[in-house]
Amino acid sequence: MSYMNSLLQITTTGSEEILGAAEAAAGSESLTLLDLIMKGGIIMIPLFILSIIAVYIIVERLLNLKKHDKDPDKFMDRIRDLVYRGDTEAALKLCRSFNTPFSRMVEKGITKIGKPLSNIEASIENVGKIEVYRLEKNLSSLATISGAAPMIGFLGTVIGMIQAFISIAQVEGTISPKLLSTGIYQAMITTVAGLAVGIIAYFGYNFLVAKVQKIIHKMEYASIEFIELLQEPK
Predict the structure, then answer these.
(1) Integer distance in angstroms from the first to the last C-alpha of the chain?
(2) 113 three-state secondary structure
């Protein structure tokens, strides 16, 4: 019985020593997020720049689209009343105060009242094209980032793997597992970073495109309402 107790005590002590050594090793090898980013190499610099650009575009476009995403129903009701009364000056002031893409289209149409309907429609359509261009500002850049960032990340991975194999080739004798694993995880960091930036840009792009389409729909609604207003008998 005493022999078994001694054996158990030795085993327990040995296990504790092994666990303690493993925990100490793990603690010494633990890396912070900043350490991982730094180990990604020079490829992390363009990825960091692309991430800043992507976040800036998403935030800037969201604020801009939110400002222009207004309900055109009440606006068109007031425009209808003012046009019926012949008060075009007040209608123009209302358009300028509303300051949205569809209000600027209607404003252009009001300035053309009295001219042929085809001319008014053409003027409104031209203003609409300019407004759509403004709404879609920088969205193409965001789409480019969503595709380019993962590819840059993969490029960093390939470069990292080449460097890892070069290091392995230069080592004489037994290859250290630590050397192999270090080179691989350093190479994979750029892949993770590239995919993260690409995913953020991709979702941001699609969300903003949906917002733009919603505003374009309101622009079309307002322009159709205004053209029908001009065709109504006075």
Answers:
(1) 112
(2) strand
193 burial class (0-12, 13-18, 19+ CB within 10 angstroms)?
Answer: buried
Asked if residues 65 and 208 have their Cβ atoms less than 8 Å apart, the reply is yes
Q: Is 86 helix (H, G, I), strand (E, B) or coil?
A: coil
What are the angstrom distances between the C-alpha of 5 and each of 1, 16, 228?
Answer: 6, 16, 98
Longest Cα–Cα distance in the chain: 113
At which residue do the structure tokens 């953020």 appear? 200
Pick from 31, 16, 15, 29: nearest CA to 177: 29
Q: How many helices (H) and strands (E) does the chain have?
A: 9, 0
Partners of 115 in the β-ladder? 113
Is 0.90 topped by the overall pTM?
Answer: no
In sequence order, which residues have a C-beta less than 8 Å from that of residue 121 and are 6 or more positions away? 227
**Strand locations in 74-126, DSSP E?**
none
Cα gap 46→44, rounded to integer Å: 6
Tokens of 146: 């969503």
pLDDT digit of tens for each residue in the chain (234 aa)? 443 444 334 334 443 443 343 343 334 345 565 666 666 678 888 999 999 999 999 999 999 998 888 888 888 889 888 888 888 899 999 998 888 899 999 999 998 888 888 888 999 999 999 999 999 999 999 999 999 999 999 988 888 787 777 777 776 666 666 666 666 777 788 888 999 999 999 999 999 999 999 999 989 988 888 888 887 665
